[in-house]
Amino acid sequence: MMDRLIEAQDERGRHLDDDEIIDVLVMYLNAGHESSGHITMWATVFLQENPDMFARAKAEQEAIMRSIPSSQRGLTLRDFRKMEYLSQVIDETLRLVNISFVSFRQATRDVFVNGYLIPKGWKVQLWYRSVHMDPQVYPDPTKFDPSRWEGHSPRAGTFLAFGLGARLCPGNDLAKLEISVFLHHFLLGYKLARTNPRCRVRYLPHPRPVDNCLAKITRVGS
């Protein structure tokens, strides 16, 4: 990542200076830590609450491990790309949890939306949950169902977990990679039992149980 930031340049050939590189790194650490951590937590919870899904995700990871040569240390991007079902689990968690629940835009011109005029210069909130919980886009939207992503490429504007357009989160691929690596090891070696499975959920700044998902983690064999 550091190499890419140092080498990056705009259309005029200007490189990022040291302060700009530091700002980007701090943004990755701060903006990515909380959101990735919470999605990892919820994906773990959802899998544990759905034993069939847990078993399918674990079987996929076991198959990947069997395909890795003995000379290889750790996972590679090739292994990551084989995690098709786990990717569906993560996308479904992102849709259902809505870790980034709103974004802001400013109208650059007068525009009509569903018969309403938004005047130029007005600030607008985009409510992601209204998209992700739309039954016309996602049937039975409150159900955790990773299979809805099998062979499915969402239309533009229907999956906003990382934003949209020019303001798309620059860390989206890194976040999914981090979450996948954690879940890979969790599925192969651990199980989780929540202490308070019906604990109330707090939604700001990110959705999470008020007990911070207090749970017992047990190491198991693969």
Automatic annotation (TrEMBL):
Alphabetized PANTHER family for the sequence: CYTOCHROME P450 26 (PTHR24286), ENT-KAURENOIC ACID OXIDASE 2 (PTHR24286:SF356)
Cited SUPFAM superfamilies: Cytochrome P450
Name of the featured protein: Dwarf plant3
Gene3D superfamilies in the cross-refs: Cytochrome P450
Organism of origin: Zea mays
One Gene Ontology term of the molecular function aspect: oxidoreductase activity, acting on paired donors, with incorporation or reduction of molecular oxygen
A Pfam family annotated for this UniProt entry: p450
UniProt KW keywords: Heme, Iron, Metal-binding, Monooxygenase, Oxidoreductase
Family membership noted in the UniProt record: Belongs to the cytochrome P450 family.
Domain of life, source organism: Eukaryota
